[in-house]
Design goal:
four-stranded antiparallel beta sheet, 15 strands, globular, binds fructose -6-phosphate, binds magnesium ion
């Protein structure tokens, strides 16, 4: 039998603004999942949170995109959102963009990362859950884990890893995907995934035998809703050891607190700080963006664990560096590159502010008009043009 691991998450409301999930919503989701387990729809589950995001980690035998399993998740979020409304939690029901469930939660708001595999005799996995950032935040660490021999010693040493990995990259603007092989196409992969707001590593396969190695949620709420409705705080599942990167090679990729988009109002770059579960609450300037990692063994479709993977002093220096970077970038205030560029700001409330200014502009005598920007990145000139 093949086992499926499904991690499905949504922000359905939180305490003291966008800080942390309420225990009653966790309890509600736990009840719904316990009922599904009793009915045999799912085999096991673990409900937790990453900051203000409610996270459902489930195992079952129904494959990815199972309508039954997605319905369980949808019901858990709906019920939890009901409790959130009763408690007056902030942004109750935020990520549930639709009222109607039609067989799959994708496109309705929740983020989804699922993979199906034959369990190895021992099957370690890592589940990563981020808050106040976007799915492309995983691009850099996924590349390091599966393509960078300076991160992953096994790429050089272990014959099972040595053949490399295949990256499935999504273009979330065009709704297209491409498969690319590492190491040969490493530079082409980087040419895409270096733009993490658009090109997102969705899945990674081991080339030796096409076994699934990793999956990342790619939902971008703003692209679904057409406006800013909170960041698309992503989740990922990675298989570890015995022919996959060791758990320590996987975690090593997060020892560098790289800059990601998100943070305050989903509009700022900041360092991704790996933290133990107890520090998964974004306070300073609604951040800085956090990452929680939980390790499990999957056995007969049950979850053994978790281990709180970043609850280790070995990551103290990463956290300290993240805080120094946070201090540094914060001093830019409303200036780029701390604030995101215009293309990303299109989905925030900034265009409403710019709209008010467009009629104030007057022509500069003798000035020639610069070439039209190829990308629709320059909000102001676009607004002015439309106002012509
Ligand atoms: C980031 C996030 C928060 C809010 C901010 C303003 O993902 O959700 O940073 O954008 O707290 O929230 P509102 O507009 O709800 O007051
Ligand atoms: Mg929130
Ligand atoms: Mg969140």
């Amino acid at each position: 039998m093949r086992t499926t691991v499904s991690v499905i998450k949504a922000d359905i409301g939180s305490v003291a603004g966008h800080v942390v999930v309420h225990p009653d919503t966790i309890a509600t989701a736990t009840r719904v999942l316990a009922e599904a387990k009793a009915k045999g729809v799912i085999f096991d589950f673990y409900v937790t949170n990453a900051g203000d995001d409610l996270e459902l980690i489930m195992t079952h035998r129904k494959g990815v995109d199972s309508p039954e399993v997605h319905e369980v998740a949808w019901t858990a979020f709906k019920e939890a959102a009901k409790v959130a409304r009763e408690l007056g939690l902030y942004a109750a029901g935020q990520d549930l963009l639709s009222d109607a469930f039609s067989g799959n939660v994708r496109g309705l708001g929740p983020g989804v990362a699922e993979m199906e595999f034959y369990e190895r005799p021992s099957e370690p996995i890592a589940v990563f859950m981020a808050d106040k950032t976007e799915p492309g935040a995983f691009n850099l660490p996924m590349f390091k884990i599966f393509a960078d021999p300076f991160n992953t010693a096994g790429l050089v040493i272990d014959p099972k890893l040595h053949a490399g990995f295949r990256f499935e990259v999504y273009d979330v603007f065009e709704g297209k995907s491409v498969l690319m092989n590492s190491p040969e196409e490493m530079y082409d992969i980087l040419a895409l995934i270096g733009t993490p707001g658009r090109y997102i590593v969705r899945r990674i396969y081991r080339r030796l035998d096409d076994e699934i190695a990793a999956v990342v949620s790619v939902e971008r709420l703003s692209l679904i809703a057409g406006r800013y409705v909170g960041k698309d705080d992503p989740v990922a599942v990675v298989r570890a050891q015995a022919g996959f990167p060791a758990i320590g090679e996987i975690l090593e990729a997060f020892a560098f607190p790289h800059l990601v988009a998100g943070w305050m109002r989903g509009s700022h770059h900041g360092p991704l700080m790996p933290v133990p579960q107890r520090y998964s609450r974004c306070t300073r300037f609604d951040g800085p963006p956090r990452l929680v990692g939980l390790g499990f063994q999957v056995r007969n479709s049950k979850l053994i664990g978790p281990v709180d993977l970043f609850d280790d002093p070995a990551f103290d220096e990463t956290r300290r560096l993240a805080q120094r970077i946070a201090d540094y970038v914060r001093r830019h205030g409303p200036f780029m590159p701390h604030r995101l560029g215009p293309e990303e700001m299109e989905y925030t409330t900034l265009p409403e502010v710019l709209e008010k200014l467009k009629d104030r502009f007057i022509k500069i005598e003798g000035a020639t008009k610069a070439a039209e920007p190829k990308l629709k990145t320059d909000l102001l000139s676009r607004e002015t043009k439309e106002g012509d």
